[in-house]
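Hi R.,

As promised on Friday, here is the backbone we talked about, encoded as structure tokens. Could you run it through your design pipeline when you get a chance and send me back a sequence?
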């Protein structure tokens, strides 16, 4: 008989657990290179973050956790002599100041999460030199454009910039991020057309661009994102109708669209999207009747529709 933990054989799971625990202990007992300690001091000074440098930053103890007990700085990538900073998470800590270039001196850093603070300034182009997988900066006062250099971070999987003051078009270079799984730029001042280079991002699972004056037609390349489960394009200046290939997407769970310009007045052909749980279609001048197939969408729990200029309704289903 073979015992498993989920789909992983129990023996392998226990081996991985032992390795993980030993790695954590190893990191807590290891020191950082002086260059990374110096970088942390500069980052802390710029963010007005009072870290206790009499304590090992890799220890996950006093001076390196927030009020909830969450660890702010995590270490890994250990060698015989040193460990390295791999993650910095400082959510909702009333941080002020500008985004530090000095993150680029943490050469093993994978995650930067500075969400829900009061940070300003531009996204540093210098960050492109480190192997980031996750950049989360939502809910700040960040300005300027998304730097072209971010397109060099080919390891990047998640980029979240929601609710800032970012302007200008999405750079063509984002099409180089072939490992990108999610992009969230809701509620900024992104302008221009969606670059065709985004069609290269075959692994996209969510694409959230609402609340930006983005223009042009809904691009057909969205229909090639077969893993896409969430799409949010409310409050843009995009033009309909949906490209026919869009309706072949079968993994969509959450679809929120509003204020499309143009369009043909027809109800979108969503019958293949049988996994829909949330559907919002507002201010799209749809004059069709509600199609019968909506009643067969057994997963649908939340429905908001505008079927004419002066007629709209919403339902919580299930």
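Update: got your reply. Pasting your designed sequence below so it's all in one thread:
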């Amino acid at each position: 008989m073979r015992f498993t933990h989920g789909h992983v054989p129990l023996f392998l799971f226990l081996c991985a657990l032992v390795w993980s625990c030993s790695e954590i202990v190893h990191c807590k007992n290891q020191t950082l290179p002086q260059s990374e300690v110096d970088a942390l001091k500069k980052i802390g000074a710029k963010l007005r973050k009072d870290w206790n440098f009499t304590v090992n930053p890799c220890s996950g103890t006093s001076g390196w956790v927030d009020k909830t007990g969450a660890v702010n700085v995590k270490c890994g990538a250990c060698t015989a002599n040193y460990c390295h900073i791999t993650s910095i998470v400082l959510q909702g800590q009333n941080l002020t100041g500008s985004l530090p270039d000095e993150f680029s001196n943490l050469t093993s850093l994978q995650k930067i999460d500075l969400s829900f603070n009061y940070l300003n300034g531009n996204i540093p182009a210098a960050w492109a030199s480190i192997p980031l997988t996750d950049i989360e900066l939502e809910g700040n006062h960040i300005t300027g454009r998304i730097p072209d250099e971010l397109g060099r971070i080919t390891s990047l999987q998640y980029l979240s910039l929601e609710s800032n003051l970012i302007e200008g078009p999405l750079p063509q270079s984002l099409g180089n991020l072939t490992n990108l799984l999610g992009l969230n730029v809701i509620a900024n001042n992104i302008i221009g057309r969606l670059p065709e280079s985004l069609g290269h991002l075959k692994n996209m699972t969510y694409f959230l661009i609402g609340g930006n004056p983005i223009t042009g037609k809904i691009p057909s390349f969205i229909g090639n994102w077969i893993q896409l489960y969430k799409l949010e394009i409310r409050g843009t200046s995009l033009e309909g109708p949906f490209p026919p290939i869009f309706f072949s997407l079968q993994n969509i769970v959450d679809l929120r669209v509003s204020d499309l310009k143009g369009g043909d007045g027809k109800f979108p052909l969503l019958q293949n999207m049988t996994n829909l749980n949330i559907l919002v279609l507002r201010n799209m001048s749809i004059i069709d009747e509600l199609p019968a197939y909506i009643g067969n969408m057994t997963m649908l729990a939340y429905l908001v529709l505008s079927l004419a200029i002066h007629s709209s309704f919403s339902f919580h289903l299930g």
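One thing I noticed while checking it: Residues 72-94+108-316 form a domain with the Leucine-rich repeat, LRR (right-handed beta-alpha superhelix) fold (CATH 3.80.10.10).

Thanks again,
M.
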